[in-house]
């Protein structure tokens, strides 16, 4: 089964923390973006450029539903919980959903120079802050655990998640 799910904005650390958490728990890491890339055989940038965002979102929904049948830690993409049907899957899963929070300043710092996120490329600080606020409710609704990642090392975040999951399972 999927042991826990990570949600949050681009740059909040879902992929990094998910990988580390999976290593600690000695289980597979399922990264939704990586699953999509493997399925299509194209990068996220290529998928957006050649097929458009709507196509990416439908694949994302399909791969999310499929991921629940697998074993591991699931890192979603920053837009995953925005689609209501995806959000319902997350909420109804009964699996701990961790919302990794990050401030706009920290996100911009972490993603400075990043070329792999087509939506990030289109955002200045004002637009990024606006999109974060627009999506916040979707992350909050999906989550059972919330934690700020600003100025925290991934290992510290993993430690906190492990404690929270333990506490919520007992
Ligand atoms: N807690 C953290 N502290 C510092 N840098 C981080 C942290 N988490 C992630 N990063 C860095 O931020 C960038 C984006 O991380 P990533 O895990 O890909 O985020 P997401 O999957 O949420 O978009 C990467 O360069 C990663 O090394
Ligand atoms: O926020 C978004 O809409 C997206 C976030 C990305 O994942 P990360 O949050 O892992 O960067 C990826 O799914 C795609 O570029 C779209
Ligand atoms: Mg990611």
UniProtKB/TrEMBL annotation:
Keyword hit for Cytoplasm: yes
Keyword vocabulary terms for this entry: Amino-acid biosynthesis, Aromatic amino acid biosynthesis, ATP-binding, Cytoplasm, Kinase, Magnesium, Metal-binding, Nucleotide-binding, Transferase
Pathway recorded for this protein: Metabolic intermediate biosynthesis; chorismate biosynthesis; chorismate from D-erythrose 4-phosphate and phosphoenolpyruvate: step 5/7
Reactions it catalyzes: shikimate + ATP = 3-phosphoshikimate + ADP + H(+)
CC cofactor note: Binds 1 Mg(2+) ion per subunit.
GO cellular component: cytosol
Molecular-function GO terms, alphabetical: ATP binding; magnesium ion binding; shikimate kinase activity
Reported function: Catalyzes the specific phosphorylation of the 3-hydroxyl group of shikimic acid using ATP as a cosubstrate.
HAMAP family: Shikimate_kinase (MF_00109)
Subunit note: Monomer.
Family the entry assigns: Belongs to the shikimate kinase family.
Name assigned to this protein: Shikimate kinase
């Amino acid at each position: 089964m999927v042991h826990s799910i990570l949600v949050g904005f681009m740059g909040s650390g879902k992929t990094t923390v998910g990988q580390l958490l999976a290593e600690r728990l000695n289980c597979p890491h399922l990264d939704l973006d990586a699953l999509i890339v493997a399925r299509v055989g194209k990068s996220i940038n290529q998928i957006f450029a050649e097929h458009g965002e709507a196509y990416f979102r439908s694949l994302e929904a399909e791969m999310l539903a499929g991921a629940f049948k697998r074993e591991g830690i699931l890192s979603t993409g920053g837009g995953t919980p925005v689609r209501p049907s995806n959000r319902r899957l997350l909420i109804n899963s009964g699996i701990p959903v961790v919302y990794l929070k990050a401030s706009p300043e920290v996100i911009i710092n972490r993603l400075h120079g990043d070329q792999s996120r087509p939506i990030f490329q289109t955002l200045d600080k004002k637009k990024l802050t606006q999109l974060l606020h627009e999506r916040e409710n979707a992350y909050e609704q999906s989550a059972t655990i919330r934690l700020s990642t600003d100025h925290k090392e991934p290992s510290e975040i993993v430690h906190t998640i492990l404690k929270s999951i333990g506490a919520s399972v007992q």
